[in-house]
Amino acid sequence: MTTTTAVGATTPSAAAAVTAAAPATGIKADFNMFLKLLTTQMQNQDPLSPMDTSQYTQQLVQYSQVEQSVQQNATLNSILTNLTSQGLTQASGMIGRSVTLNSDVAGLAAGTPAAWTYTADRPVSAVTASITDSTGKVVMTGPMAANIQGALSWDGKLADGSTAAPGSYTLAIAATDAAGNPVPVTIHSHGTVQEVSASNGTLTLNVNGALYGSDKLLGVAATGA
To answer: Model-level pTM greater than 0.70?
Structure first.
């Protein structure tokens, strides 16, 4: 047997079923509550003193505005999902490519060293590098050539002969000029993209086991370039 409900009519049991099946949140919850309050107000108004027409019109306008907000919110969510999917598809082309990142953090993986380059603001006379692990512990430190530009590739070897565990490591450069004044240094990390992922509209790159937001990306090149 088929039961047909007239258009615009909703039985109490049907309304309860819909509510239980799909609880609303956010703007949609406000929209449903507004509609319920408006309907209740209309049903319980005094027949001898009905709601003022202008007041009723204002509430209908508010109802329409809330409804538009619900629709706009759904549309924006759909657009965000599509843009994230498109961005993820495009970013997947970087897998296996060498990248330069605006970060002093580099990933150390089995068989893959952590790599950085640095550039000083002006000529230097002394340069000292130190590497810390994810807990902030210094695991390696030592002098480097006093060049205005340089590179460091660290295979994880420690002073005691052991090898550091794979993970994210941070490079710090202390540089001074001939007068002993500190010289600012810019550090960039390098590595190969292993994976790209998306969450809440944000793209994340996995480079040698370290994670970076796509906003840290400075350059992409063929592996080995």
So the answer is: no
